Amino acid sequence: MDECCAPRPPDGYDREFDDRFARRLARDYRRDGLTPSAQLVLEFADSVGLTGASVLEIGGGIGDIQLEALKRGAVHTTNVELSSAYEPEAIRLLDEAGLRGRATRVLGVDLAGTPDAVHPADIVVLHRVVCCYPDYRRLLGAAAQHGRRAVVFSHPGNGLWTRVAARSINALYTLTGNPYRSFAHDPRAMEAVLTGQGFAPRYRERSGLWHIVGAVRA
Ligand SMILES: C[S@@+](CC[C@H](N)C(=O)[O-])C[C@H]1O[C@@H](n2cnc3c(N)ncnc32)[C@H](O)[C@@H]1O
Predict the structure, then answer these.
(1) Following CA atoms 214, 103, 17, 108 in sequence, which dihedral angle do they give, to the nearest 10 degrees?
(2) pTM of the model
(3) 81-104 tens-digit pLDDT
């Protein structure tokens, strides 16, 4: 899509996902490693084959999954983020691991609106991201377009409690003037975006709130 006509990404990511949030994620990752849900994402990526693979992560935060993917043999990772708050922690973690030369961090690009902004990769990851973005069709569609071999994403489901929680938190955001919104998209409709682009879901796992779906090019 021509960049002049691309829809603007929603506001509020910098405020919602701020320095404090980033520091907490980095502290927890240094102490405990990947969260159980992130481990499942990595496990699927490894089952597809990380050795020599390129990984594109949309909304990858501090880049913890990317670091582990690089340690398991991924050749290069690219992170695309809308919040700038993660960058200092992400760079520090990459330097500590001696992996900075194999990671690219792209800031302020919404792939859903400007799909040509980054190159395709073997494996595309969206962990805890679709629930932060209104247009899952466009976002997962862009992810599928960029995935040469596989796409893996996680979501919180859309059962009654998830929908109630999303509405309640959005009401609070409205009251406090925070433009950020959370979303409980239909899981089947999200998978349908991937199948519509030639992917076959072959991995479904759950860790706590998070459902992980991994799909490979059919
Ligand atoms: C809940 S955070 C998760 C961060 C990281 N994936 C993790 O699990 O720690 C969601 C992230 O998705 C990012 N995000 C949402 N929509 C995005 C988009 N269209 N492109 C890039 N990043 C996006 C937000 O900026 C935010 O940092």
Answers:
(1) -100
(2) 0.95
(3) 999 999 999 999 999 999 999 999
